[in-house]
Amino acid sequence: MMMRTCILCVVVGVLASTAWADNLPDVRSKSAVVIDAETGAEMFAKDADEVRPIASTTKIFVAMAVRKKGLDLDGWTAINKVDAHEAKGGARTRLDIGQTFRNKDLLRAMLMASDNRAPTALGRAAGLDPDALVAAMNDIAKDLHLERTRFTSPSGLHGNVSTAREMAIALRAALDDGTLKSIMGDPYEEIVSKDGYAKIHYGTTNQPLVARKYDVIGGKTGYTKPAGYCYITAARFEDHEVLMAFLGAEGKLTRFADFDRVASWIDRGGPKLKPKHRHARLKVDVEARGRVAK
Fold first, then answer.
1. For a FRET experiment, which of 33, 87, 282, 293 has its CA 20 to 30 Å from that of 14?
2. Under DSSP, is residue 114 helix (H, G, I), strand (E, B) or coil?
3. Distance (Å) of CA 153 to CA 7, 59, 232, 271
4. Per-residue pLDDT tens listing for the chain (294 residues)
């Protein structure tokens, strides 16, 4: 019995040293980055500049594109066959053809629950057909100097790519919009169609936000077979806002476990957080191949 106990102690010790090797969190996602949002300091990176499919994390670019185009949040938009076609092959939708919803509620459906019929409907509401919406999304990436981010699909089901680092930078830009920040930080909403017949309850797919173990500000999840499980989010630790991006996790819960490992590491004093600078801005140093600079 004593021998078994000793063996167990050795195994646990090995696992613990693996999980905290070199005082870094054992992040399992294929690519990841953790950035101090205020100073731009990189706190952790794992293949952060590797170009990968990004699945439905794409949708933060849809949101930024239609907001830039002047989307009427209180306007109404009907779901049509174009939206159904663009969403084909994705997860189950709760937005039926012919139903009409407020544009702000379509943003909720898209950012909270990743409904794949919402992106093209929102694009249409902002005067953008699917091709024009994709072009507008690429323009947002260009404006943010994201050189490795490319879009071919509004939903993220086909072809869109970026890097963990560039997705963290994009999330910072999305959270600068108070409306988008509010939606991405909302755990639950009910949306109602214009005729009152459809009442849809949406809960966020951002599990750490719901768990409330940490002060999660908001973010977006995504999954396709080529992309794996993806998760981008921001969280607050004392007076620091931190951006995190995890791409290519093999398990659905792995990306959230990665968040927990990083959050615990920060709480344990792992990274050296620099003092905040009042006028610091997060940007991309293009000459440094996309690395974050002050």
1. 33
2. coil
3. 53, 10, 19, 37
4. 333 333 323 332 333 333 334 589 999 999 999 999 998 999 999 999 999 999 999 999 999 999 999 999 999 999 999 999 999 988 889 999 999 999 999 999 999 999 999 999 999 999 999 999 999 999 999 999 999 999 999 999 988 999 999 999 999 999 999 999 999 999 999 999 999 999 999 999 999 999 999 999 999 999 999 999 999 999 999 888 999 999 999 999 999 999 999 999 999 887 766 555 433 445 444 333 333 322
Element (H, E) at 217: strand 215-224
In one-letter notation, the amino acid at residue 130 is P
244, 168 Cβ separation under 8 angstroms: yes
Pairing of strands 228-237, 215-224: antiparallel
- Domain range holding 268? 24-293
Residue 42 is inside which H or E element, if any? strand 42-46
Q: First vs last Cα of the chain: how many Å apart?
A: 57
User: Which one, of 229, 275, 278, lies nearest residue 29 by Cα?
Assistant: 229
How many domains, the chain? 1
Q: Evaluate whether 243 touches 236 at the Cβ level (below 8 Å).
A: no
203 part of a folded domain: yes
On whether residue 77 sits in a domain, the answer given is yes
This prediction has a pTM of 0.86
Question: Is residue 15 situated within a structural domain?
Answer: no
CATH classification at residue 57: 3.40.710.10
Q: What is the DSSP letter of 206?
A: -
